[in-house]
Write a structure and sequence with these properties.
The chain contains ten helices and 13 strands. A seven-stranded antiparallel β-sheet has the order 2-11-7-13-5-4-3. A four-stranded antiparallel β-sheet has the order 6-12-8-10, with no helix packed on it. The chain has one domain: q2cbj1_9rhob like domain (Jelly Rolls). By secondary structure, it is of the alpha+beta class.
C-alpha cells in the first residue's frame, strides 16, 4: 500500500463516478482577524481591500511586469503560459522570484499580514503569478475551486490557504473581472474524471478536468448568488482557497492584469498528490515551505 492509498482523504475528488458535495469541516478563519476589511471573511469567503497599494506602487509593479511580458528570452521559459488562441502571454508563474519588485511586495506586512490573520500561522508562498487579460482577446478562467486542484494535483491536505489578487489595472464589471459565489467555500465540490499526466500543461491555458458539472454549478449559483470584484488599480481581493470563482472573456478594449499571490500555512504543507500520478513543477506548487519574513 502506498502512502497516498493509506491516507485519509477528507476531500476526495477526480473520481470515476459522480460523488456528492462534502460539507467543509475545516475552519475558514484560523487566526484572529484585526483588519476591518476582513470582518466578513468567515461568512463570505472573500474580502475586498480598497487602495491596498498606492498609485506609485502599482505603477512600479506594472512597469516591471510589462517588461517581463515583452522579454523574448523569458517567453521561452516554461513558467510563461501563452494564450491558446491569441499567442499572447496569459500568465507568468513564480513571479516573486523573477521580479525584485514583487519579491519585496510579498514580504510587505500589509500583504502577508492579511494571510497570517486568516490562516493563524506563519505562511509561505505556495504559488505566485501575474495574469494578463488583454483587450479584445483576453480569455477567461472557467468556474473552479483552487483547493480542488491543489489538493488533487499538489497534495495540499486542507483548505488552509488564501489567495490575494492585486489589481494593476481598473477592474470593471465588463472587462473579465473575477466572479465569486459568496459562501460556497463551505462546501467542497468533488469533480469527476481522472487527472491526465502532466495535466498542468493544458489546464493552465484552459481547464477542463477539475471543474464541477454544470448542474452542480447552477445549484451553487442559485444558493449563493454571484458577486464580482470590481475596483480601481491598487485594490485587492483576498479569497479562500475553496471558494468557487471564475471570469469571463474580455472583449472590451480595456486590458486587465493582476498579481496573484497564494499564501499557504506552514502547518498545511504539501504531501504527495491525492488524485494525480506525479507532483506538478515547483514553479506552480512550491515545496519550499520556508516562512516569509
Amino acid at each position: 500500500m502506498t502512502l497516498a492509498e493509506s491516507r485519509i482523504d477528507r476531500y476526495r475528488t477526480r473520481t470515476a463516478v459522480a460523488v456528492p458535495p462534502v460539507e467543509r469541516t475545516d475552519p475558514t478563519v484560523w487566526g484572529t482577524v484585526t483588519s476591518p476589511e476582513l470582518q466578513n471573511f468567515d461568512a463570505d469567503g472573500y474580502a475586498i481591500i480598497d487602495e491596498l497599494l498606492t498609485p506609485m506602487e502599482v505603477a512600479d509593479i506594472a512597469t516591471d511586469i510589462d517588461r517581463l511580458a515583452a522579454d523574448p528570452v523569458l517567453r521561452a521559459d516554461e513558467r510563461v503560459i501563452i494564450e491558446k488562441k491569441s499567442n499572447s502571454v496569459r500568465s507568468i508563474f513564480e513571479v516573486h522570484k523573477i521580479s525584485a519588485v514583487v519579491a519585496e511586495l510579498v514580504r510587505d506586512e500589509r500583504i502577508v499580514g492579511l494571510a497570517r490573520q486568516i490562516l493563524g500561522s506563519e505562511v509561505y508562498i505556495h504559488q505566485s503569478r501575474v495574469n494578463y487579460m488583454p483587450g479584445f482577446e483576453g480569455a477567461g478562467f472557467y468556474w473552479h475551486s483552487d483547493f480542488e486542484t491543489w489538493h488533487a494535483e499538489d497534495g495540499m491536505p486542507s483548505p488552509r490557504a488564501v489567495s490575494l489578487s492585486i489589481a494593476l489595472t481598473d477592474n470593471y464589471p465588463f472587462n473579465g473581472s473575477l466572479m465569486l459565489l459568496p459562501g460556497s467555500h463551505r462546501q467542497f465540490m468533488p469533480c469527476q474524471g481522472e487527472t491526465p499526466d502532466e495535466h498542468y500543461r493544458e489546464s493552465l491555458r484552459e481547464q477542463q478536468i477539475g471543474v464541477p458539472a454544470q448542474e452542480d454549478l447552477a445549484q451553487l449559483a442559485d444558493k449563493y448568488g454571484i458577486a464580482q470584484f470590481t475596483g480601481a488599480r491598487g485594490s485587492a481581493l483576498l479569497f479562500d482557497s475553496n471558494i468557487m470563482h471564475g471570469s469571463s472573456n474580455n472583449i472590451t478594449p480595456f486590458a486587465r492584469s493582476n498579481v496573484f499571490l497564494v499564501f499557504n500555512s506552514v502547518e498545511n504543507t504539501l504531501e504527495e498528490p491525492y488524485s494525480a500520478l506525479h507532483q506538478r513543477p515547483t514553479y506552480i506548487a512550491s515545496r519550499d515551505f520556508t516562512p516569509l519574513r
